[in-house]
Amino acid sequence: MADEGGNRIEEVLEESRPFYMIALSAFFTVFFLVYDAIVFLPFKLFADPEKKKALSEREKAKPTVEGNPASPWRHVETIGKDLKTRIFPDCYTLGAVWDRAVEMHPDDMCMGWREVHQAFEEKQSDGRSFQKFILGEYNWLDYSEVDDRITSIACGLTSFGIKKGNKIVIYAETRKEWMMTAIACFKLGIPVVTVYATLGEEAVAYAIKECDAIAVVTTKSLLSKVSAAVKDVTAVEKIIYFFDAYRNPDEPQEASEKVIKELKNHGREVFTLDELINRGDELEFEEVEVEADDMAMVMYTSGTTGNPKGVMLSHKNILAALTGQSAVIDVDNRDTVIGYLPLAHILEVCVEMVCIARGTRIGYSSAQTLFDRAPKIQKGSKGDCAALKPTLMACVPAVMDRIFKAVTDEVKQSNVIARELFRICYERKRARYEEGYRSLVMNRLAFDRIRKLLGGKLRYVLSGGAPLNAETQRFMNICFCCPVVQGYGLTETCGGGTLADANDLSTGTVGPPLRCCEIKLREWADAGYSPKNDHPQGEILIGGDNVALGYYKNEEKTKEDFIEEDGVRWFCSGDVGEFRSDGSLRIIDRKKDLIKLSHGEYISLGKVETTLLTNSLVDNICVYGNSEHDYLIGLVVPNEKNIKELAKNNGVKDGDLKKICSSKEVREAVANELQNHGKGKLQRAEIPKKVWLCDEAWTPASGLLTEALKLKRKNIEKAFEKEIQQLYKSK
After folding, report:
1. pLDDT over threshold 70, residue 127
2. Which of 254, 481, 639, 667 is 20 to 30 A removed from 583 (C-alpha atoms)?
3. How far is CA 72 from the centre of its chain?
4. Domain count, the chain
5. Which CATH number characterizes residue 404's domain?
6. CB-CB contact of 730 with 321 (8 Å)
7. Same domain (yes/no): 583, 622
8. Looking at the structure, do residues 251 and 377 belong to the same domain, yes or no?
9. Is residue 424 located within the same domain as residue 567?
10. Statement: residue 16 has pLDDT above 50
11. Is the pLDDT at 251 greater than 90, yes or no?
């Protein structure tokens, strides 16, 4: 099967190679030929690479009606059978799944965290200061200890008069306290309303007001935002907060008296989570009858446009998705997962709940402490990956693109011999990987140091949230010595849709449909997408028990995105997919990302952005075009280090980033670089003709990215409206 992953290590290490490097390359070519004869050929007899290739290329999904690609596609194991909807046959709710996990793994480690040993203030040249920490080793609670705390939280909530059907907002970073509180609510039949910790006050207030919650669970650092958000929301009676994970140990633990007073003046009662647990310790837990169809979560998506939408998810919905995912995510009580993505995102909730069901331990982390070089880790001390050594990690593509660039930049800065060795080993391992072999010697020789960036023990990495660039996926496979598998799903399908397995050696696909659902492709004639094409194509519709109940208090949008056909409830994703011959799905477009230029051709903005993001000058990019012009322009957040080097080479010696980004010469140089980078990968009309350089990073806090780090296209276009017009007017 053709591999979608491009090979651009030659581009990463782009510079002329002196004669002695060519000689060195020849030497290693001969070395590997001898190595093959002595070691690899005998190893082949035992490694059985043909079996691995067969597993990779086997048929994984097919249409339910033979010969009709317009019919729903299912995983081959569910053709002619019922879809799989429960992890444990007799567990119909998330609370029941937790109880079964405790019953099966009472003494296994469950949730872990690190404490701050020392805190430092690091001054920057611009006058700003940043906190840096030295963290201790992981502390652990086993499943029975976590269960005791969950029971106490549940009893404490009940003592407040909170009962089945009432809603509780969790507005906090990813922590063990987040998940423990959520499980307590699941057991009580209390819907958990999730709100991203980085949302602005306006969006937070909108979500809290719309969902009619009677309590908010948050962290100390977010209390002031909560106070502002609930000021005019009379339904909220209780505020419960826990302490921030990463804080100076000398700081007072209690929230400021001013914030507490504000909340009390608004008529709210304020408690710490410890006070709630202590209150619950004195009470007896009373079982609550929770049904599969009861609402478990209202998950507010940050969305790429407009106000956040509350997606209503029942226990049955989430359990179906977990069942489909657990058939592919091969973990048990010997594994460790690192939890750092937002728990307000369905991807992290699903990964953690699948792991909990299998007795896996979860070590909590954050994006600011994940690696040794993460923003809040003191130089010379361990980041969370190094301390935890996880065997499973979930990522979003934006994070992996950053890892890809960090590694390739480090390789480029190595001496010429080290670069040549890396190139030779990479090419050799790539060829062997695609043939179904492992490369134990080269893993040690060239990739051991890179692999240790993520702890060195990873068995596989899950990617979701957006399509992953095929080149980045192959690079991660090779350099981190483990499979990187893509999945596809949305909040509206509980993150369930497709998931590739660890045996798939190809790149660029998101795998076959999960065993809990089916997928069909709806024709989009205007753009030329049809299930009748040589490769079936069309808008992706997902059907099954994992499809959400709809949008909270938004019947119009629910009717637009959810449809009933042939007794199946379908979610219309707006994404365009293509089934390969083996039944794996590729995401090839998004309806909202397609534009038509003045020459009449459709352009996929997402495809262009994914391709150009791999350029070392680009940290982020939003491509813009409209039907009044015949070319695209690019809004680029440059890599500060590399753009300064480019500026110096183009005669701009002032090192101030703002001045560099405003330089016409630098903008033109970047445009030329992107033109060269896109050749052979994009059509001429797809490559931006002009670029604008943005001197500030785009973040969820600035409103230009979603919490999954996807572009908020309309917000970006509005923020840079003047710059866009200026580029189109310039010659």
Report:
1. no
2. 481
3. 27
4. 3
5. 2.30.38.10
6. no
7. no
8. no
9. yes
10. no
11. no
* Token pair 């608004």: residue: 266
Residue ending a domain, among 531, 564, 588, is 588
Residues 57, 145 contacting (CB under 8 angstroms): no
| Cα–Cα dist 300/309, whole Å | 5
User: Span 308-332, mean pLDDT?
Assistant: 95
Final residue in a domain of this structure, among 260, 290, 320:
290
Tokens of 625: 């075009």
Q: What is the DSSP letter of 392?
A: E
58: domain range?
A: 9-45+54-83+369-588
Whether residues 72 and 102 fall in one domain? no
Domain identity same for 496 and 618 = no
Task: Name the residue with higher pLDDT: 656 or 166.
Answer: 166
SS3 461: strand
Q: What DSSP string runs through 75-119?
A: EGGGTTSPPP--SSTT--SHHHHHHHHHHH-TTSEEEEE--EEEE
Domain membership of residue 300 (yes or no) is no
Q: DSSP state, 140?
A: E
Beta-carbon count within 10 A of 477 CB: 22
Query: 612 and 678 in contact (C-beta within 8 Å)?
Result: yes
CATH number at residue 194: 3.40.50.980
The pLDDT of 397-403, averaged and rounded, is 80
Three-class SS of residue 415? coil
Q: Phi and psi of 242, rounded to 5°?
A: -120, 170
Q: Give the pLDDT of residue 37.
A: 54
Which pTM value belongs to this model?
Answer: 0.85
CA–CA separation, 301 and 290 (whole Å):
25
Looking at the fold, whether 584 and 468 belong to one and the same domain comes out as yes
Provide CB contacts within 8 A for 349, sequence distance 6+. Answer: 182, 297, 318, 343, 495
With respect to residue 166, please indicate whether it lies within any of the assigned structural domains. yes
DSSP string, 551-601: ETT-HHHHHHHEEEETTEEEEEEEEEEEE-TTS-EEEEEEGGGEEE-TTS-
Q: Which amino acid is residue 370, in one-letter code?
A: L
Report pLDDT for 2: 44
Asked whether residue 176 is assigned to any structural domain, the reply reads yes
What's the rounded Cα separation, in Å, for the pair 129 and 148?
A: 40
Q: Which amino acid is at 133?
A: F
* pLDDT computed for residue 344 by the predictor: 92
Q: Could you tell me if 166 and 213 lie in one domain?
A: yes
Query: Which 3 state secondary structure label does DSSP give 657?
Result: helix
Structure tokens at 68: 């009709």
Residue with tokens 């994006």: 367
Residue 521 has a pLDDT of 97
- 580 and 626, same domain (yes or no): no
CA pair distance 281, 244, nearest whole angstrom? 23
Q: Is residue 198 one of the residues assigned to a domain? A: yes
Mind listing the pLDDT tens digit for each residue in 185-206? 999 999 999 988 877 777 788 8
